[in-house]
Automatic annotation (TrEMBL), chains A, B:
SUPFAM superfamilies: Periplasmic binding protein-like II, Winged helix' DNA-binding domain. PROSITE patterns: HTH_LYSR. Keywords: DNA-binding, Transcription, Transcription regulation. It comes from the Bacteria. This is LysR family transcriptional regulator. Residues 1-58 form the HTH lysR-type domain. Gene3D superfamilies: 3.40.190.290, Winged helix-like DNA-binding domain superfamily/Winged helix DNA-binding domain. GO terms for cellular component: protein-DNA complex. The keyword Cytoplasm does not apply. InterPro entries: LysR_HTH_N, LysR_subst-bd, WH-like_DNA-bd_sf, WH_DNA-bd_sf.
Length: 303, 303
DNA sequence: ATGTATTCATGCAAAAAACGCATTGATTTC
DNA sequence: GAAATCAATGCGTTTTTTGCATGAATACAT
């Protein structure tokens, strides 16, 4: 069982297609086919079902995939750890975050971090809420920004810290009747069309729940698959939206206005998580400490 | 980073000797040397210090060793899991246990298990108390019998069940003044020479502590490095010993006599542990369930 | 101190493994 | 039913690994 075989296996499993996997791996299709075959021989097990011209993982193959994914992540991390050990400030931070932080929160953190450590590298990916947690648990990445902070249920496998609490605000088109107010109550929007994220996004659920607390069900007019899409929809006058305040800092779209909500508890907690079982890589540890330090000072300042 | 390199690396790290590692791996020394060198080149790091004709892990090498050990255990386990998936009853149970269970407890359990699953295989190893826990955590084995059951401190990483509670009894030479009694108090042995396990064995500490509870410090005459050695020492009349009852069942040595102790709480809990983070392999799961079932019935019967 | 025995690293040829190409047979698509 | 796509396989080529021989450095014994 050589890592080359495992790498080929993982790629084929993900693509469910040998030829494409071979292209993606920059080797001939025959090589991939043969290595997979060797692997199956060694394990004495069918990992793929050849149905017609497709290959799909068998149930057993899926189990094997999960295990190998984890093992390879472990090995890759170890490699990075060893390489970064001597000078962490030149290493790489691999971090994932929800789309809502892509525009402002993350960039400003990274900017600050790179001011102190100019040679640090970043690998970023965004993911939906459950995948952030899953990714941290199975080692796809070791750090994730997340909002809201997950609760007890995952406590055994992930550890984290709340960095700050931010307000949720309303974004209205400029010609909206309430656009001139300095603040509103959420319930005042009960008859407005809402633009929200699609099902599956945690922030959509938070919006709907907030409305329910304000004793109405939001009338969903449009769905946009990221925060910027929502902004566009509001900007076009197609509805109103709720957003975390940080996504609007320095970035309120044209023809819209941001209005604070005076409802109680209309906030979300933003934090960072990492796996309990594994240690952070040197550079990531540096970044994590940096995060805590920065936000501790910032929160202190707010008081 | 190929698994061949990692296997060579692990062996060299353990033996601190390339030539011996090569012999143990059934390859030429030059191959091992070359692969280690390749690995170091790829990682761009010194894994070993060449001091004279020895090789020792650098501090960084130690970190890498731990990571790789874990990764390889994961891969090996995955391989076994996949192979055993189809028919668990033909698979292998890898289990570790303290020496005190080597004579009676383990063999009788295994005998019973093999009566139901005649094709099951066993790989057994014994280890000191802390290594039992360490081994389960880092994946050297997935199951360990252990006594006493460890407490909270490791709760996050290991899970386990208490199987039964057994009495601790005294083993006396046949000509001992108390040898004809049907039971004694531990304190009656306060002036006797004791034979005990060496430092580092948990059961030694238990014995000493039990004596302290009986308000005396045992006078240690001899140390034997396993239970059978202790039995021999008692049999030769060199002292008295305390032992878990199960180690004497069907096996009281010649010229000795086993006497129950009437002190309260002179018992130890015997249990089985497995890692919280990983799932048991199919055959091991079978064995674990078997254990629970057997001892539940047995404990029921005792009442 | 000097010689001898070990031990790890390296050059080089042999063996083994992986690769790419071409082709086959099976299946899907139009 | 023809064309296209895909995975498997035979085969010659390339790459990698191995083993042997050797060299350099160190430890040990006398």
């Amino acid at each position: 069982m050589e890592t080359r075989q495992i790498r080929y296996f993982l790629k084929v499993a993900e693509m469910e297609h040998m030829t494409e996997a071979a292209i993606s791996l920059h080797v001939a299709q025959s090589s991939v086919s043969r290595q997979i075959s060797n692997l199956e021989n060694e394990l004495d097990v069918e990992l793929f079902i050849r149905e017609g011209r497709r290959v799909k993982l068998t149930p057993l193959g899926k189990i094997f995939y999960d295990r190998m994914k984890q093992a390879m992540n472990l090995m890759d991390d170890a490699k990075r750890e060893v390489k970064e050990y001597m000078n962490p400030e030149k290493g790489t931070v691999r971090i994932a975050f929800p789309i809502s932080m892509a525009a402002h929160t993350l960039p400003s953190i990274i900017y600050a971090f790179r001011t102190r450590y100019p040679e640090a590298q970043f690998e970023m990916s965004n993911a939906l809420y459950p995948d952030l947690i899953k990714g941290v648990v199975n080692g796809e990445f070791n750090l994730a920004m997340i909002a809201p902070m997950p609760i007890k249920e995952h406590e055994k496998k992930i550890t984290g810290t709340t960095l700050f609490t931010e307000n949720i605000v309303a974004l209205l088109p400029l010609h909206h009747p309430l656009a001139n107010r300095t603040s509103i109550l959420l319930r005042e929007l009960k008859d407005d069309p809402f633009v929200v994220l699609p099902e599956g996004f945690i922030f959509r659920d938070q919006v709907v729940q907030a409305c329910n607390v304000a004793r109405f069900s939001p009338q969903v007019a449009f769905e946009g698959k990221d925060i910027d899409a929502l902004k566009g929809l509001v900007s076009a006058g197609l509805g109103v939206a709720l957003m975390p305040e940080s996504t609007l800092v320095d970035n309120t779209p044209r023809s819209t206005v941001m209005i604070p909500l005076t409802d109680a508890n209309l906030t979300r907690t933003v934090g960072v998580i990492y796996p309990t079982q594994r240690e952070l890589l040197p550079t990531e540890q540096l970044f994590y400490n940096f995060l805590l330090e920065i936000y501790e000072r910032l929160n202190e300042f707010k008081k």
